TrEMBL record:
SMART domains: ARM, FBOX. This is F-box domain-containing protein. One of its GO terms (cellular component) is nucleus. One of its GO terms (biological process) is lateral root development. It is found in: Nucleus. Keywords: Nucleus, Repeat.
Length: 742
């Protein structure tokens, strides 16, 4: 059979890239044809490259390793024109490994100072756009070197968190080193002085988009010298002298859009700007108290500028109208900027959560965020999804959301939009969409809608992601959805249990957030008998014990202990109780967690030991692991703690005291006095467990005497006569009867 040699061409725009061919593969292809086997390597090269372009960087690299043909296609320059490093730890050594693929990179996104320091090692001198967040620790030196190494830079954005260590010196370096700069947006700089701004005006003649956002001081007069600027944002910037602004910004003859959101701008300054500027078309002024308090301002301002001839249309449809209208370059430029500005402003307002905005969020804000999620700009979509995740939360500590806001998102079709974003191949969108779905799902009605629209399967798939940020938010979504009994079976059917257990093994170190969410979801699911058995089958017992033993983060410890408690709560219907007790190190770890300084951890650990003590072997093993001493100490220390902790501490001692040896040990360790103190609690659940423990202890004459000597008789008599709990009254009566039986 003759071999055919073909030269392969991959297209990059109009340019043809000549790729090597491997003739020995041709014979293999023909034989595969004869056997009727599909050969993926026979796809046209441009089709393979198009498929590669829809994958994340990790998947591209994995597919490239499958054969020589795909290895060659996988390093095509057109696939490496943009790079998003936000989900990855990118230090100097990592950047050096990536350098060979990044020579043609045009767009880069990164997170944190360490990644910023490593950027220069990518050797991507042709970079056009750099965008970074979590930039608090980035210094002037780092930013200056980045600017010096990337002279072709056209766009630089750092934020939305504050760049506290960047000064005007770095801005001057950017101006001198990056003459092609068109867009500069920086957040949280302490002072942007006149020299820095004048350097931008002098060296960056193409600079059309400037944002000095949330800065302490910006030289207003110097900004009037940046004649090339079309769009300017000083949102959140303090100490602006608005009288000077109206005098000096008249010189900005090309200014089309101005963002003064979250500032103290006065109505008079706004009216003067519009009256003196022939070019200004759009003013964004969200959450400006002086404008909102002036009742006459809205009427005066409403006719100053309009983007559309038909002003009768509702504001909430303005972006839809634009996207459906005929293309207009000038309008497209304005609306693209406005999308970015509004997404940033709304997120900032949602984060600060000022009082008095409920009506705004319900009538306009939620719908506007949903419109922004339909933008073609990826960072606008991300920020809008983050805004949705943020504005519904009213109490971070207790994970409570505003039901009205959550259901407003649902009514406007937000669930479907978020799930579509979550299906994206872009991991940044996946992460932010999953976060919004997770927060919204705290509301039971939204959780139901998410489940009905296929959200559980989507989140279960995202939980398998190799991207830690994506997996963490997906696990959070499953955690919140698993609160509802009706969703637990669906999560199990979608493979969510195994995905959550796998997450624990995958991120066993360095992933506290994902571990807490995965363990929390498993804890909820383990409360269901059927799910509890499946958690054990897929390795959940081992995974959770591993967390209880080795993780030092209290959130993970609490959820791992709670999950083990729920797994052990089905003693009559499955064997998980015994399985947890037999797992190496499980009981010792739980005993150790009862000594935690965090009440939540101690409560869940004591609850787990209580449930486990129903098994005879576990009961003795807990005592052998120091459980009696630890639980007596816990009972002593929790007199002023929450009723939940008190109930579980007394309950665990009640469970251990079933054994005569343990009962004697509890009395000897001083366990009688704290149980009597807990019997005086105002919570009926605590009455029951304390009285139950004292009843068991009263079987032993020595303990009975201790109960009398420590004042237990009046406490038990009081329970008999006044406790709301019938069980507590019964237990107290039994304790008294056995104490005096002899």
């Amino acid at each position: 059979m003759s071999r055919r040699v073909r030269r392969k061409l991959a297209r990059r725009g109009k340019e043809k890239v000549d790729l090597p061919s491997y003739p020995e593969i041709e014979d293999e292809k023909l034989s595969l044809d004869e056997r009727g086997v599909v050969d993926w390597t026979r796809l046209p090269d441009d089709t393979v490259i198009q498929l590669f372009s829809c994958l994340n960087y990790r998947d591209r690299a994995n597919l490239s390793s499958t054969c020589r043909t795909w290895r060659t296609l996988g390093i095509s320059p057109c696939l490496w024109q943009s790079l998003d490093l936000r989900a990855h730890k990118c230090d100097t050594s990592t950047a050096a490994l990536l350098a060979s693929r990044c020579t043609n990179i045009l767009k880069l996104r990164f997170r944190g100072a360490e990644s910023a320091d490593a950027i220069i090692n990518l050797q991507a001198r042709g970079l056009r756009e750099i965008s970074g967040d979590y930039c608090r620790k980035i210094t002037d030196a780092t930013l200056s070197v980045i600017a010096a190494r990337h002279e072709a830079l056209e766009s630089l954005q750092l934020g939305p968190d504050f760049c506290e260590r960047i000064s005007s010196d770095a801005i001057k370096a950017i101006a001198v080193c990056c003459p092609k700069l068109r867009k500069l947006r920086l957040s949280g700089i302490r002072e942007v002085d006149g020299d820095a701004i004048n350097a931008l005006a002098k060296h960056c003649c193409n600079l059309t988009d400037v944002g000095f956002i949330d800065c302490l001081n910006v030289d207003e007069m110097a900004l009037g010298n940046v004649a090339s600027v079309h769009f300017l944002s000083v949102a959140g910037t303090t100490n602006m002298k608005w009288a000077l602004v109206s005098q000096h910004w008249i010189k900005l003859l090309n200014l089309k859009g101005l963002d003064v959101s979250r500032t103290d701008i006065l109505p008079s300054a706004v009216l003067k700007l519009f009256s003196s500027s022939q070019s200004l078309k759009v003013l964004c002024a969200l959450n400006c108290p002086s404008l909102e308090e002036d009742t006459s301002f809205a009427a005066n301002y409403s006719n100053k500028a309009s983007l559309f001839a038909d002003t009768t249309k509702r504001e909430r449809n303005v972006f839809s109208d634009w996207r459906n209208s005929k293309k207009d370059k000038n309008l497209d430029e304005i609306m693209t900027w406005l999308e970015w500005i509004l997404s940033h402003a709304l997120l900032r307002v949602a984060e600060s959560n000022p009082q008095g905005l409920d009506n705004f969020w319900l009538s306009q804000g939620a719908a506007l965020l949903l419109r922004l999620m339909q933008s073609v700009q990826e960072d606008v979509q991300e920020r809008a999804a983050t805004g949705l995740a943020t504005f519904v939360v009213i109490d971070d500590e207790n994970a409570s959301v505003d039901g009205g806001r959550a259901e407003a998102v649902m009514r406007d079709g937000g669930i479907g939009l978020l799930l579509n974003l979550a299906r994206s191949w872009r991991e940044g969108l996946q992460s932010e969409a999953a976060k919004a779905i997770a927060n919204l799902s705290v509301n039971a009605n939204v959780a139901k809608a998410v489940a009905e629209e296929g959200g559980i399967n989507i989140l279960a798939n995202l939980a398998r992601s190799m991207n830690r940020m994506v997996a963490e938010e997906a696990a959070g979504g499953l955690w919140n959805l698993s609160v509802g009994e009706e969703h637990k079976g669906a999560i199990a059917e979608a493979g969510g249990l195994k995905a959550l257990v796998d997450l624990i093994f995958k991120w066993s170190t360095g992933g506290d957030g994902v571990l807490e969410r995965a363990a929390g979801a498993l804890a909820n699911l383990a409360a269901d008998d059927k799910c509890s058995m499946e958690v054990a089958v897929v390795g959940g017992v081992h995974a959770l014990v591993m967390l209880a033993r080795s993780c030092k983060y209290e959130g993970v410890q609490e959820q791992a202990a709670r999950a083990l408690a729920n797994l052990a709560a089905h003693g009559d219907s499955n064997s998980n109780n015994a399985a947890v007790g037999q797992e190496a190190g499980a009981l010792e770890a739980l005993v150790q967690l009862t000594r935690s300084p965090h009440d939540g951890v101690r409560q869940e650990a004591a609850g787990a030991l209580w449930n486990l003590s129903f098994d005879d072997r576990n009961r003795e093993a807990i005592a052998a692991a120091g459980g009696v001493e630890a639980l007596v100490a816990l009972a002593h220390s929790c007199s002023n703690a929450s009723p939940g902790l008190q109930e579980r501490a007394a309950g665990a001692l009640w469970g251990l005291s079933v054994s005569e040896a343990n009962s004697i040990a509890i009395g000897r360790e001083g366990g009688v006095a704290p149980l009597i103190a807990l019997a005086r609690s105002e919570a009926e659940d605590v009455h029951e467990t304390a009285a139950g423990a004292l009843w068991n202890l009263a079987f032993n004459p020595g303990n009975a005497l201790r109960i009398v000597e420590d004042g237990g008789v009046p406490a038990l008599v009081h329970l008999c006569s006044s406790s709301v709990s019938k069980m507590a009254r019964f237990m107290a009566a039994l304790a008294l009867a056995y104490m005096f039986d002899g």
